[in-house]
Design brief:
- Keywords: ATP-binding, Kinase, Magnesium, Metal-binding, Nucleotide-binding, Phosphoprotein, Transferase.
- This is Polyphosphate kinase.
- The structure is a single chain.
- With 697 residues, the protein is an alpha/beta fold.
- It folds into three domains: 294 residues, Polyphosphate kinase middle domain (polyphosphate kinase like), CATH 3.30.1840; 169 residues, Endonuclease, Chain A (2-Layer Sandwich), CATH 3.30.870.10; 182 residues, Endonuclease Chain A (Endonuclease, Chain A, 2-Layer Sandwich), CATH 3.30.870.
- It has 19 helices and 27 strands.
- Strands 10, 11, 12, 13, 15, 16, 17 and 22 form an eight-stranded mixed beta sheet that branches. The chain has an eight-stranded mixed beta sheet with strand order 18-26-24-23-19-20-21-27, with helices on both faces. Strands 2-4-3-7-8-9 form a six-stranded mixed beta sheet, sandwiched between helices.
- The longest helix has 33 residues.
- It starts with 11 loop residues before the first helix and ends in a 13-residue tail after the last helix.
- The relative contact order is 0.09.
Length: 697
């Protein structure tokens, strides 16, 4: 990328922090039930931990590279790290303030008191001390620090109490650490309460604080501060083109928890001499430090007790049954017409039923699936095992390079292999990210192929919170090409024919996407209406961004819904003034990818497994699936219109007004996820109301 172009392109990690700030905005949104806001604080914290373990660790490693290597980079890693820490520090101050000034008082107003050690009454002190002796004492692992001599190893992301103490015998200042065993025990301990209107609890951290004097009987405790260290979590496989890839990944997994430090999180109230001492003990640099509040590992707040206060949580949206696909014969239903499934609004039972019926159906001969991420307890995987038991041919392609799911995928692979499933593992140098499965069934003495193509993984748990779309189809235009793609995954032999309907990563997908954009440019220049709609998780690929900028300059109207990374900057006069972009963060994680190209009114509509990132478009097997069924096309258009109308949870992505809530002149509040649920409910009941057409321009 040329230097003058960098001003129009935001580094992926800085724009990711903008996304995580949108999560933090949800924690601040007082229109949400209180415990839902607490949950968003947990999501923010969990996101940030992974970000430091992977992305920040990556920048630190780049900084160690040679000067020649760093000269070839578009962004200096030192500058990116400085910007990252500046943004994160601001956000950390904000989230600490939210916790102390909003969550704690509002919880108390709702009868839940989070007490510190100095707030305890005598009964509660006795309870806390007995709890410490009975449960915590075996885990606290006290270590007295001795500079240059004792450098204890801190477990990744574990909580510790750093203690400033004075030796009673010689008045000498000392430092120590003890572990807060939140990995072994519940973080939130319910206390006895003498006041009926209150539920009292205390964090495990403060129980250790209260009792730490017993661990160091010869010392006076001056002060205590919580700390944690996160470690580099990336898997480094130097040569993925040779050797046993599975063995390399297993070996790297063993190193993940002992990787180099990528961040020391510490209480910002810690005095500077103590912090300097810890920096020296743990051999840390200026980019390794992140101040937070009194408590860390806020992702533990996912498990914060609600004490039965249902008014503090969201109104339930129970998944809607899809009767046609959950009935007696799913294959008959798919033969009649294609079906669109939109989870979590509709039940994932349809997908599970697809595999369970295929396993038991005597006419089914083959089942094939790509496994990228899968639930620990999975009916889908159990259906594959049942199919093998009943004599069917089952094959599974397992991507063992799915970050943080490598170990789980390897275990499932071994289970399937041991049962007789033909298991195929990662292709060296490429990730397989396509979400697809096929079933071969003999009907009237002829084989027919049924396919399920999705934007999300075959994961029964995430299907409850990730918003994804998928289609069941028997259309040979799709199924023939999906079958051909499975053959490639199993043999690694290049398909003999081009893909005419599917767009497939590593087989011309990126080039075809560029053609679709340029076709709109051509139409605009010829005086035709030209429109592009993209709903993606991430938009980062510089080449694709440049194509969108050129399209905007040519007069193509472009509407984007981008959940996370968006390196493109909309709204710049003369460059991206025809591009409008929003991001929606709400109760469900927006995960579906939908692409629409106007094409002189014909509307080319696709669902996709791929985001527009370099890694997806250049280094992965992905699928972009055309939608031919007219009813499904109309439904997808309706769903897109609903999301574009959101004026409650939509934030602007804009070069000047980034993360401002979208506003319009409509007095009617439209929260797209709520509207979508009731739209799908009406659709299920075959009573769909007409949705007003949104102006295309």
């Amino acid at each position: 990328m040329k230097e003058e172009e960098l001003d129009n392109y935001i580094h992926r990690d800085l724009t990711w922090l903008d996304f995580n700030y949108r999560v933090l905005q949800e924690a601040k949104d007082k229109s949400l039930p209180l415990l839902e806001r607490v949950k968003f604080m947990a999501i923010y914290s969990s996101n940030l931990d992974e970000f430091f373990r992977v992305r920040v660790a990556n920048h630190r490693n780049i900084m160690r590279a040679s000067k020649k290597t760093k000269k070839e980079l578009e962004f200096a890693p030192e500058n990116i790290l400085k910007e990252i820490l500046k943004k994160v520090n601001r956000q950390q101050e904000e989230i600490s303030n939210i916790f102390e000034t909003q969550f704690i008082p509002e919880l108390e107003q709702n009868g839940i008191r989070v007490l510190r050690r100095l707030d305890l009454n005598e009964e509660q002190k006795v309870f806390v001390e007995e709890y410490f002796n009975q449960y915590l004492l075996p885990f606290v692992q006290p270590v007295l620090l001795v500079e240059d001599k004792i450098k204890p190893f801190l477990n990744n992301a574990s909580l510790y109490l750093a203690i400033h103490l004075r030796d009673k015998a010689n008045d000498k200042v000392n430092y120590a650490i003890v572990k807060i065993p939140s990995d072994q025990l519940d973080r939130f301990i319910i206390l006895p309460s003498s006041e009926e209107q209150f539920h009292d609890l205390i964090l495990l951290d403060d129980i250790v604080r209260h009792c730490v004097k017993w661990i160091f009987p010869g010392f006076d405790i001056i002060d205590t501060y919580s700390i944690k260290l996160t470690r580099d979590a990336e898997l480094y496989i130097d040569d993925e083109y040779s050797g046993d890839l599975i063995a390399k990944i297993k070996h790297s997994l063993n190193k993940r928890q002992v990787g180099p430090a990528s961040r020391l999180v510490y209480d910002r109230e810690m005095d500077k001499p103590f912090l300097k001492y810890l920096i020296k003990v743990f051999d840390l640099g200026e980019f390794d430090l992140l101040p937070e509040g009194r408590y860390h590992n806020n992702f533990d707040f996912f498990k914060f007790p609600d004490f039965g206060n249902k008014h503090l949580t969201n109104i339930a949206f129970p998944p809607l049954p899809y009767a046609e696909l959950e009935g007696n014969d799913i294959f008959e239903a798919i033969t009649a017409n294609d079906h669109l499934l939109h989870v979590p609004y509709q039940s994932y039972e349809a997908v599970v039923n697809f595999f369970e019926q295929a396993a038991k159906d005597p006419n089914v001969t083959h089942i094939k699936i790509v496994q990228y991420r899968v639930a620990k307890i999975s009916r889908i995987m159990n259906a594959l095992l049942e199919a093998i038991r009943l004599g069917k041919h089952v094959s599974a392609f397992i991507e063992v390079k799915a970050r943080f799911d490598e170990e789980a995928n390897l275990k499932w692979g071994e289970t399937l292999e041991n049962a007789g499933v033909n298991v195929y593992y990662s292709i060296p140098g490429i990730k397989v990210h396509a979400k697809m499965a096929i079933v071969r069934r003999i009907e009237d003495s002829k084989p027919n192929i049924y396919a399920y193509m999705s934007t999300g993984n075959f994961h029964e748990d995430t299907a409850k919170i990730y918003s994804d779309v998928g289609i069941f189809t028997k259309d040979p235009r799709i199924t023939n090409e999906v079958t051909r793609l499975f053959s490639f995954l199993e043999t690694q032999k290049k398909p003999s024919h081009d893909f005419e309907h599917l767009l497939v990563g590593k087989f011309g997908m990126k080039e075809k996407l560029i053609q679709l954009i340029r076709n709109e440019v051509k139409n605009a220049k010829n005086g035709h209406e030209a429109l592009i709609f993209l709903k993606l998780n991430s938009l980062q690929d510089p080449m694709m961004i440049d194509e969108l900028y050129k399209a905007s300059s040519a007069g193509v109207k472009i509407k984007l819904i981008i959940r996370g990374i968006c390196s493109l900057q909309p709204g710049i006069p003369g460059l991206s003034e025809n591009i409008e972009a929003i991001s929606i963060v709400d109760r469900f994680l927006e995960h579906a990818r939908i692409l629409i190209f106007f094409n002189k009114g014909k509307r080319d509509i696709y669902i996709s497994s791929a985001d527009w990132m370099v890694r997806n478009l250049d280094h992965r097997i992905e699928t972009v699936v055309p939608i031919y069924d007219e009813k499904i096309r109309e439904t997808l258009l309706d769903l897109v219109r609903i999301q574009l109308s959101d004026n409650v949870k939509a934030r602007l992505i804009h070069y000047e007004k980034n993360n401002n809530y979208k506003s319009d002149n409509d007095d009617l509040a439209i929260r797209s996820q709520t509207e979508t649920y009731y739209y799908m409910k009406r659709l299920n009941e075959s009573k769909v109301e007409e949705i007003p057409e949104i102006e295309e321009d």
